[in-house]
Design a protein that fits this description.
Blueprint (H helix, E strand, L loop, with lengths): L1 E5 L6 H9 L3 H10 L4 E9 L2 E8 L6 E12 L4 E13 L2 E9 L7 H14 L15 E7 L9 H9 L4 H4 L3 H8 L39 E7 L20 E9 L11 E8 L9 E6 L8 E7 L10 E6 L10 E4 L5 E2 L5 E5 L9 E9 L4 E5 L3 E3 L6 H13 L1
Parallel strand pairs: 6-7
Antiparallel strand pairs: 1-3, 2-3, 4-5, 5-6, 7-8, 9-10, 11-12, 12-16, 13-14, 13-17, 15-16, 17-18, 17-19
Length: 407
C-alpha cells in the first residue's frame, strides 16, 4: 500500500476548480508511476491545498472495504481549507484503519493553536458504522503531514551547529511535538520513529541549504509520521495488551527518513516504510469471478461468478474488463451490468456474457473486477488471463498493397 499526503498545493480558486473537474497534476503523476507496478488508486480526497491519495496492490482490492473520506477546515476559524485535515477510513482484511493527513498552523509561538486544531479535527470528523465513529476509535491510526511543530528554546546558531554534526538527539527534548506527547491526553498512544534525519524545514528552493532570507527561520522537524494502535502499548511494553493476541495489529517501522534530493518546496518530504502484521479476519472475497474458456475478439465471452451469502448485491453492480496495470476502478476497457444478462448455472454460480464486439482486438493480459454499487468499491478480482489478439492475414495485407498501388 502507498499512502501519500501532500500539503500546500496550489489552492487558488481557479486552479482548485480545474483540479476538481480533472485530476490534479500530482494525482496523475503518482497514478502513472504506481500503476505499472501493480498499484491501483482506491480513493483520494482533497481540501484546497491538502491532498491524500491511497493506492493498494491489485490482489488486495477485494479485502479493502468500508471506504470513507472526511475533512475538517481549521483555517480562518474553520472557513478556509488551507489548514486542517483530510482523512481516509478503510477496512483492511477486517481491521479498521484511519489515515489522517494534516496541515497545522505555522510559526514557533503557535503550539497551542496546533494542538487546538488537531483536537478540533479529532472531534469533528465522524464516520459511519458502530465499530469506529471517530478517528481514535479505529484499530490503527496513521497521523502525518506538515504538523508545523518547531524546536523551542535553542537559538538558530546552536540548532544549525547541532545539525551539521548530526547530533540530532540534542534537539529532541526541545521539539514541541515530543513535549506535547508527554502532557496532552489526546496524544496518548501516538508513536513515532526516532528523528535521526535532518530537520525538514526551512530550505532555500532547489537547495539543501537552510533558509538564508531575512526571516532566518530556525530549522525544525515540521513534517512527521506518527501512528497509534487502539489499545496502545503500556509503558515499557512492545505489544498492545489484548484478550485475543491473534487479532492484535503489529506495526513495525522499517525506515523513517527525509528525502533531501527534492527541491521543489522549502520543505523536504518525509517517507516512512511500515510492515503491518495481523490475522486476516476476512479471508474470502465477497465475489469470486473468472473468465470461461478462451477469449478472442469477435467472439462472445463468458464470465462466471459466485457471491457470498452476506453480499449486498444491487441491480447497479457491474463487471469491468481491465488491462493489467490499470489505474483506478474507472479505468476499464469495457464493462457490463451484472443483472442485465445474468444466468444461473447452478445453486450459487452465475454466468454473464460480453458481446464479442467489446472484446479488445489488440489482445493482451487482463483481469475482471466486480464493482459493488452499494459498497462503492471493487469486491472481486479474477486472476490475470490472456485475450488473444487478431493477427492480420496475408490476404488483407495483399489487398492493402494493391489499393495503395492503384492510388
Amino acid at each position: 500500500m502507498y499512502v501519500i499526503g501532500l500539503q500546500e498545493l496550489n489552492s487558488r480558486l481557479s486552479s482548485f476548480l480545474i483540479d476538481l473537474a480533472f485530476s490534479d497534476p500530482w494525482t496523475i503523476l503518482f497514478t502513472n508511476s504506481l500503476a505499472p507496478l501493480g498499484y491501483v488508486k482506491i480513493t483520494s480526497i482533497r481540501m484546497q491545498g491538502v491532498l491524500l491519495l491511497v493506492f493498494v496492490k491489485c490482489s488486495h482490492l477485494p479485502y479493502i472495504r468500508d471506504l470513507e473520506t472526511n475533512y475538517t477546515r481549521t483555517g480562518l476559524f474553520g472557513y478556509w481549507g488551507n489548514k486542517g485535515g483530510v482523512a481516509v477510513r478503510l477496512s483492511v482484511y477486517g481491521h479498521l484503519i484511519c489515515l489522517l493527513n494534516c496541515h497545522l498552523p505555522a510559526h514557533i509561538e503557535n503550539t497551542s493553536q496546533r494542538l487546538d486544531s488537531f483536537e478540533r479535527i479529532l472531534e469533528l470528523q465522524q464516520f459511519t458504522g458502530s465499530r469506529a465513529q471517530t478517528i481514535l476509535e479505529h484499530d490503527l491510526v496513521f497521523w502525518f503531514g506538515d504538523l508545523n511543530f518547531r524546536i523551542a528554546d535553542h537559538g538558530l546558531h546552536f540548532i544549525r551547529e547541532t545539525i551539521s554534526k548530526k547530533c540530532y538527539h540534542l534537539l529532541w527534548d526541545k521539539d514541541q511535538l515530543n513535549r506535547a506527547k508527554k502532557t496532552e491526553p489526546m496524544l496518548n498512544g501516538f508513536l513515532e520513529g526516532e528523528l535521526r534525519f535532518t530537520p525538514t524545514y526551512k530550505f532555500n528552493l532547489a537547495s539543501t541549504e537552510y533558509d538564508m532570507s531575512g526571516k532566518k527561520r530556525k530549522p525544525a522537524w515540521t513534517d512527521r509520521i506518527l501512528w497509534r494502535l487502539k489499545k496502545c502499548p503500556e509503558a515499557g511494553g512492545s505489544e498492545p495488551p489484548t484478550s485475543d493476541p491473534k487479532k492484535a495489529i503489529s506495526v513495525i517501522l522499517n525506515t523513517y527518513d527525509s528525502q533531501m534530493q527534492y527541491g521543489i518546496s522549502d520543505h523536504k518530504p518525509v517517507v516512512g516504510n511500515f510492515s503491518l502484521e495481523f490475522e486476516k479476519l476476512i479471508a474470502q472475497p465477497l465475489v469470486e469471478l473468472q473468465p470461461v474458456g478462451e477469449w478472442r475478439p469477435g467472439h462472445d465471452a463468458t464470465i462466471s461468478y459466485r457471491t457470498l451469502e452476506e453480499y449486498p448485491s444491487s441491480t447497479w453492480d457491474w463487471i469491468g474488463l481491465f488491462k493489467v496495470g490499470f489505474r483506478c476502478h474507472t479505468d476499464y476497457v469495457t464493462y457490463l451490468w451484472v443483472k442485465d444478462d445474468e444466468l444461473m448455472v447452478n445453486d450459487d454460480v452465475y454466468q454473464v456474457y460480453l458481446n464479442g464486439e467489446e472484446v479488445p482486438s489488440s489482445g493482451g493480459e487482463f483481469v475482471l473486477c466486480y464493482y459493488s454499487s452499494n459498497m462503492e468499491t471493487i469486491v472481486g478480482v479474477s486472476c490475470p488471463f490472456q485475450v488473444h489478439a487478431i493477427k492480420p492475414g496475408r490476404m488483407g495485407s495483399t489487398i492493402l498493397q494493391d489499393s495503395l498501388g492503384n492510388l
